[in-house]
UniProtKB/TrEMBL annotation:
Classification lineage: Bacteria, Pseudomonadati, Pseudomonadota, Gammaproteobacteria, Vibrionales
Record-linked Gene3D superfamilies: 3.30.300.30, N-terminal domain of ligase-like
Name this protein carries in UniProt: AMP-binding protein
Organism (species): Vibrio barjaei
PROSITE patterns registered for this protein in UniProt: AMP_BINDING
InterPro entries in alphabetical order: AMP-bd_C_sf, AMP-binding_CS, AMP-dep_synth/lig_dom, ANL_N_sf
UniProt xrefs under PANTHER family: ENZYME, PUTATIVE (JCVI)-RELATED, PTHR45398
Pfam families, per the entry: AMP-binding
């Protein structure tokens, strides 16, 4: 798979480039997919979509090659691409009003209750028509993130936003990556994986892995001087059990803060400090750093303007958000010069656990919709160096009866099972306490300190 590194192509012209048909687009342990096969698969799927009246297409795949096929087929068929970030059936069903057609691969089971068109990604096509130049401003991509209301929030972007960010990434790290192969431990359904493991490699001729690496042992066995790893703090922290070193071309981390000790350990393993990227679904990439020292500051990406509002929260003007207007974040920070700053935490009720963005409001909403619960209060706690959620709950009469009949242990298991229909396991509270009422202060705001006292004993 070694070949000269191709020059950067825009998403507009990507499928019309004169790439060699045998160039490798993607790979797994058994197979490689060539550029010629890639074009044929996109054309086959695009033709199917062009015959559909559905406009909003949800792309849900486990395989990153199939995802790339579906994503670009939607764009060339003139469809809006909807990217659900959660495969849980109940959550996907709840999101069903946001899409008309579900495009999936064999790794994703379609939701049985979804009354919409379903299309499996095709890979059989004989006649290849040329692809037109894409209008990047018109190609719409809809991602979802946890909103402060507790309902998944739709974030609308265009291919132009993504293309602009890809050009920035290549300008900073293109020479470092060269013709390296791209491996990943993160999902392509979210913006970090979408950009770093699929679209950026496609636009620069770097082959990417179809499947995630999930375990530290896999990461170490796949490491080589010609491979890049797109990862997260959750996985990098787990590398603490590894002691044998291995070469790697570059290592990226995003999704949450990476502890300094984890960064140092990764440097000892790979001879490379992780390149950490700070951003969000709404903003895309904002800044980056490598922890050469404990108090390393973030550095803004080229082309991004930043300032603080009266609450000392970051405001941004960026070509991959909105080139003309300021975007307000809930991230408190301190600037040390025009380009460098340090983060001081979030000021809303969105938290990150194991790099998953979790809305505390949403978890409370899912609890409160159960017949057994009248009201709930969910908050974060640090338990043996691990961040997790606790929930204080006020039970309804039906809930009191259920608790008495099952006992606490089985009742907590029942609550967790119900929540897992809606939210990812990492967002399910680890501990519950039953209270007569949620403690409030004189302003009617919840007293977190009083809630925390309920959990000082261990189960």
């Amino acid at each position: 798979m070694n070949r000269p590194h191709n020059t950067h192509q825009t998403l507009a012209h990507l499928l019309g480039t004169s790439k060699i048909g045998e160039d490798i687009v993607a790979f797994d342990m058994e197979k490689q997919w060539t550029w010629q096969q890639f074009l044929h698969d996109i054309r086959a799927t695009s033709d199917l979509l062009e015959h559909s009246t559905s406009q909003r297409v949800a792309v849900c795949t486990l395989d990153s090659y199939q995802f790339a096929v579906g994503f670009l087929a939607c764009c060339h068929a003139g469809k809006s691409v909807v990217l659900p970030g959660n495969y849980q059936n109940a959550a996907l069903t709840e999101l069903s009003s946001q899409f008309d057609l579900l495009l999936h691969d064999a790794g994703v089971e379609p939701v049985s209750s979804k009354p919409c068109e379903r299309v499996a990604i095709d890979s059989h096509f004989e006649n290849l028509k040329p692809f037109p130049v894409l209008d990047l401003k018109q190609a719409e991509i809809i991602l979802f993130t946890s909103g402060s209301s507790g309902t998944p929030k739709a974030i609308v972007k265009t291919l132009e936003h993504l293309d602009t960010e890809i050009a920035i990434l290549e300008s900073i790290w293109g020479n470092l990556l060269g013709n390296a192969l791209v491996e990943s431990t993160v999902s392509h359904q979210h913006i970090y994986g979408l950009l770093f493991r699929v679209l950026w490699p496609l636009c620069t001729g770097r082959a990417f892995a179809c499947r995630n690496l999930e375990y530290p042992e896999q990461v170490m066995s796949h490491a080589s001087a010609n491979r890049v790893l797109v990862s997260s703090p959750a996985l990098l922290k787990r590398l603490s059990t590894q002691t044998d070193s291995a070469e790697i071309r570059a290592l990226f981390s995003s999704g949450g803060p990476l502890p300094y000790d984890a960064a140092k350990h990764a440097n000892g393993l790979f001879g490379q400090l992780p390149i950490e990227v700070y951003g969000s679904t709404e903003t895309g990439g904002i800044a980056y750093k490598q922890q050469y020292s404990l108090n390393e500051f973030w550095r803004l990406f080229p082309g991004i303007e930043a300032k603080l509002n009266h609450e000392q929260c970051l405001k941004l003007k960026s070509p991959h958000i909105d080139a003309d207007n300021w975007y307000q974040t809930a991230d408190a920070c301190v600037f040390h010069d025009e380009q460098r700053f340090e983060l001081k935490g979030r000021t809303d009720r969105i938290v990150k656990i194991e790099e998953k963005r979790i809305s505390l409001v949403e978890v409370e909403k899912r609890l409160d919709q159960l017949d057994w619960i009248y009201e709930s209060a969910v908050f974060c706690c640090h338990d043996k160096q691990r961040l997790s959620l606790n929930a204080a709950i006020v039970l309804t009469p039906a809930g009191l009866d259920k608790l008495e009949s099952l006992g606490k242990g089985k009742f907590w298991l029942l609550l967790r099972a119900e929540l897992r229909q809606w939210i990812e396991p990492i967002a399910v509270p680890r501990r519950f306490r039953v209270v007569a009422e949620i403690p409030l202060n004189s302003q009617g705001k919840r007293q977190v300190s009083e809630l925390e006292k309920l959990f000082t004993d261990s189960l």
